[in-house]
Amino acid sequence: MRLDISKIKGNLNSQMDVNFDVMLEENDDIEIDFIGPVHVNAVITNTEDGYDIDGSMDVSLDAICYRCLKLFRYHEVIELHDNLNNYEEESGEKVFFNGGNQVYLDGLIRTDLLLSLPSRYLCDETCRGICPDCGADLNVGDCTCNNEPIDPRLEVLKKFLKQ
Ligand SMILES: [Zn+2]
Ligand SMILES: [Zn+2]
Fold first, then answer.
1. Mean pLDDT across the chain, nearest whole number?
2. Which ligand is nearest to the CA of 142?
3. How far is the CA of 83 from the centre of ligand 2 (A)?
4. Which of 5, 101, 102, 136 is buried deepest, with most CB atoms within 10 A?
């Protein structure tokens, strides 16, 4: 979606609120199951360095916990801080249209979001994961495996007995 920024154009330090959704399509470089669009709530400020965008990206996706391997709904509000001119220069993606009166921010949001998302997901800070021996979900209850840490002194003894 193109946003009209003409009302802050030419007025240093003037700001405008923007609210829009970006639909992220799954493709080769995104293997993420997004649930609905990313909601962007931000302020664009006309600065000496171009246009700053500051706000948040509200994202929901289906993730798999790396500890217990369960599918869960990940929802996060991620901070957004970027500069439209710098982004256009660095990425080579065109942001400004119609003589700079309109901006198209989908690419910027997509890039910033992918850089901000975690590389792996945890369903809960307290997730106990699965037992490496029997595969039981330890969040449900303890399994019958003996997962007591082995006493290093006993290890030495075991090696000794094997010889
Ligand atoms: Zn988990
Ligand atoms: Zn077990």
1. 90
2. 2
3. 51
4. 5
